[in-house]
Amino acid sequence: MCSIHCFVLFLKLCAYIVCLQALENEIASHEPQLMSVVAVGDDLVQRRHFGADRIQDRLQEILGMWQHLIDAAAYRRKRLEEAVDFHQVG
After folding, report:
1. d(CA 37, CA 4)
2. pTM (2 decimals)?
3. pLDDT of amino acid 5
4. What percentage of the chain's residues is helix, strand, coil (to nearest 5)?
5. Fewest beta carbons less than 10 Å away: which of 30, 37, 48, 62?
6. What are phi and psi of 23, to 5 degrees?
7. Can you give the pLDDT at residue 2?
8. DSSP 77
9. CA-CA distances (angstroms) from residue 87 to 8, 56, 72, 73, 76?
10. Structurally, how many domains does the chain consist of?
11. What's CA 19's distance to the chain center, in Å?
12. For 47, which DSSP code?
């Protein structure tokens, strides 16, 4: 009975990895657009736009959130791969 349960769990883990890959692809597909927006914001700051301080703060906030998203996806991948490795060994 345990071997069937472990096999089902292993299949679920593999499905989660496939879903995570789709999410990672979706994230990566939005990076060029985000970096384009950041470049425009940086340009406004460099040109001393009247809202440069607020623009700079918002750019830092956005880039921080973006990095957090990437880090969270990487952590999730690491944990799922560890779980798959555990079930392959067991």
Report:
1. 50
2. 0.86
3. 78
4. 90, 0, 10
5. 48
6. -65, -45
7. 63
8. H
9. 11, 47, 23, 21, 17
10. 1
11. 12
12. T
What single-letter amino acid sits at 73? Answer: A
Residue appearing with tokens 């921080």: 64
Q: Residue 1 has what pLDDT?
A: 52
- Three-state secondary-structure class, residue 55: helix
What are the tokens at 53?
């301080």
Give the domain extent around 68: 2-89
Q: What is the pLDDT of residues 7-60, one digit of tens each?
A: 888 888 889 999 999 999 999 999 999 999 999 999 999 999 999 999 999 999
Residue by residue, DSSP assigns 5-37 as HHHHHHHHHHHHHHHHHHHHHHHHHHHHHHHHH
**73's tokens:** 């996806």
Burial (Cβ within 10 Å: 0-12, 13-18, ≥19) of residue 17? middle
CATH code, 77: 1.20.58.60
